[in-house]
Specification:
single chain, Protein Transport Mog1p, Chain A, nine-stranded antiparallel β-sheet
């Protein structure tokens, strides 16, 4: 197993256990010989990025609404705010650990910087994961689930810091009060810094664009050019739908993307996939999306090749394409992997036990070409996807 896969596997297992079996997991955490650097790299860096990235996507996609008025912040300000929020979150974990460690003697507890950092890092799991709800304004209220972190903190602090039961609640209360103050300070600092830095970034280019690549430790990279383009595309599509709903003329604005005819996609399906003959073909449309599907082979060796035009979701796909990096999850019988191939988003899954696999490639931030099969190798599934004329799909996207 690669180091990346091991980190991902350990992270997922630890997060699940601390949420659903916290008492048992704190026992394991207490006994682990660890370092602050290792916890930062393997746990804090990826999880602390969730609220910042979710808030970034939500702000660019839907804006901020209040009393029927929607405000769409600039890309520069939003991006800077997310980076600052992420940086302060990382710093906040360490500062909270310092507070826990410094207050330990006051409550007859043992000072131990690493143990204090474990408490600060792992108890924050619920609040970081709940931050994902910031993507959709209608679900933002569910971030209140992050308060579960207080319960995790209550279980973990007395055990790891060797706190007598009679001193546990006073110790917890004092640290929580300090954490609340720390959160307020982070919020107060984030706003002014985001606004100032955002104005500086925007002023660096007269047309209000930003470019380059932002590298986020533990999460990969963000293509600022694609992010800017995706946010504009999303805003244009939203405005077009609002205009149509209100009966306004949209001829002067940018229309939303319309899916191509299913028959056009069906014509791109090959007659054979390697040695497998095509046995069935179908195409259909639903809403602003269309699909063509071919089935190949038979018996224990079958494959399905699909081409989907996800026109209605093209702006969201473009937004997702702005975030780079590779993700790998290893299982006992296979793996899941996502990343980029020739600049296109890719996802593949494989199970050795059933010899089933799936390989997907996203073309022009709009079309999904996916091959799935039973009794075929992953290499054959990749070849099946490659058999589709990608240049033709790119051309269709530009029409």
């Amino acid at each position: 197993m690669t180091e990346t896969a091991a980190y991902n596997s350990n992270l997922v297992a630890r997060a699940q256990n601390i949420l659903f079996k916290p008492a048992e997991e704190w026992v394991r955490i207490d006994a682990e010989p660890d370092t602050i650097g290792r916890i930062y790299k393997g746990y804090v860096l990826p999880l602390a990025a969730i609220p910042a990235l979710a808030g970034l996507i939500g702000a660019l996609a839907f804006g901020h609404s209040f009393l029927g008025v929607t405000y769409r912040p600039s890309l520069a300000g939003t991006l800077t705010g997310a980076v600052v929020q992420y940086g302060l979150a990382l710093a906040g974990v360490y500062v909270l650990a310092l507070i826990i460690d410094a207050l330990a003697p006051t409550f007859q507890s043992e000072r131990n910087r690493v143990q204090a950092f474990k408490v600060a890092a792992y108890s924050a799991t619920a609040s970081w994961l709940a931050g994902v709800f910031a993507i959709l304004p209608s679900l933002a209220w569910l971030s209140i689930l992050g308060l579960y972190s207080l319960y995790l903190f209550r279980l973990g602090l007395p055990r790891l810091m060797r706190t007598p039961e009679a001193k546990a609640w006073p110790y917890i209360g004092t640290v929580v009060l300090a954490a609340v103050v720390l959160t307020m300070v982070i919020g107060a600092v984030t706003g002014p810094i985001s606004g100032l830095a955002g104005r500086q970034i925007a002023s660096a280019s007269r047309d209000g664009t930003v470019s380059g690549t932002l590298h986020v430790p533990g999460m990969g990279s963000v293509d600022l050019d694609k992010l800017q383009s995706a946010s504009r595309q999303m805003e244009a599509g939203t405005q077009s739908m609002q205009d149509k709903a209100a009966g306004r003329n949209t001829s002067q604005g940018k229309e939303s993307v319309t899916a191509v005819e299913p028959a056009v996609l069906q014509a791109l399906l090959p007659q054979t996939l390697g040695t497998l003959e095509r046995t069935e073909v179908q195409s259909f449309s639903a809403g602003n999306a269309s699909t063509a599907e071919g089935r190949y082979g038979g018996g224990a060796t079958t494959a399905t090749l699909q081409i989907k035009d996800l026109a209605a979701m093209s702006s969201l796909m473009a937004l997702g394409a702005a975030f780079g990096g590779e993700r790998v999850r290893q299982t006992k019988t296979g793996y899941e992997k996502s990343g980029k191939v020739d600049g296109r988003m890719m996802r593949e899954t494989w199970d050795d036990r059933s010899r089933r696999g799936r390989y997907s490639l996203f073309v022009a931030d709009r079309f999904q070409v996916q091959a799935s099969g039973r009794g075929v190798d992953m290499a054959e599934l990749r070849d099946a996807v490659a058999a589709v004329d990608m240049d033709a799909l790119e051309k269709l996207a530009r029409q």
